[in-house]
Amino acid sequence: MLVFARQLLKDRHHTGAILPSSGRLAREMTRALQVHRGQKRVLEVGPGTGPFTKSILRSLRDGDEFHVVELSPMFCRQIERRLIEPFRQQQPGVKIVLHNDPIQSAILPGSFDFIVCGLPFNNFPPDLVRAIFRRLIGLLAEDGRLTYFEYAGVRMLKSTVSSEAVRRKLKQIGMTGRVLKRRHDGTRKLVLGNVPPAIAVSLTRRDVAASERNG
After folding, report:
1. Taking residues 189-198, what's their average pLDDT?
2. What span, in angstroms and rounded, lies between the C-alpha atoms of 177 and 188?
3. Separation between Cα atoms, residue 165 and residue 24, nearest integer Å
4. Per-residue burial over 29-58, b = 16 or more CB atoms within 10 Å of its CB, e = otherwise
5. What is the DSSP letter of 91?
6. For position 160, what pLDDT does the model report?
């Protein structure tokens, strides 16, 4: 919590939340990983202090591969020390790579079965939001699943007290989410046990989802 607070004061723009995500939100964000059978490649983007990382690590088995992309050097050091290194000692058969980079330029080999994203999209310019989602969708394997979250009602509340420029920005970010929903099959799950309440959004490429239904 202290590391989270220091990073929040240092970089509110990229941290985004008041408190770390709850265990309930972490379970919802990683639900598909927990029930998956067989080897998997997992990517986490924007782990912060690691609430989703912990849940992801519990799902990993020998032969799995896990890449973590985090912009903050402070969060990277904490995740490496508290979560990744102890896990490596217990399960050396899992490959884990930590990237201290923005997702737009991180060098990531191949595609991923699961992508879990904790980035605070409402804090970013709309062009950056679109660029990040293009990268994430492009990194999905054929049957891959992307899960991200947004705070319930936050854009609407912000719009009532913000300038015209901020309202325009939030509207464009909301439109990006609606475009993704139209282009890809997905689900939305409200998680009340988080501060503030959050919506976990899970997307599967529509062409893959359709073939699964027809096959």
Report:
1. 94
2. 11
3. 34
4. bbbbbeebeeebbbbbbbbbbbbbbbbbbe
5. -
6. 75
DSSP tag of 6: H
Q: By C-alpha distance, which of 66, 17, 2 is closest to 40?
A: 66
Instruction: Determine the Cα–Cα distance for residues 163 and 145; give it in Å rounded to an integer.
Output: 36
Q: How far apart are CA 51 and CA 84, in angstroms?
A: 13
Cα–Cα distance for residue pair 113/115, rounded to 1 Å? 7
CA angle 153, 28, 126 (to 5 degrees): 45
At 13 the three-state DSSP class reads helix
Q: Was domain 2-207 assigned CATH 3.40.50.150?
A: yes
In order, the DSSP letters of 111-126 are: -EEEEEE---GGGS-H
pTM value is 0.85
Residues sharing a CB contact under 8 Å with residue 209, sequence separation 6 or more, in sequence order: 184, 185
What are 148-186's pLDDT values in tens digits? 999 997 777 767 767 888 889 999 999 999 999 999 999
119-131 burial, b for 16+ CB within 10 Å, e for fewer? bbbbbbebeebbe
Residue 41, strand partner residues: 65
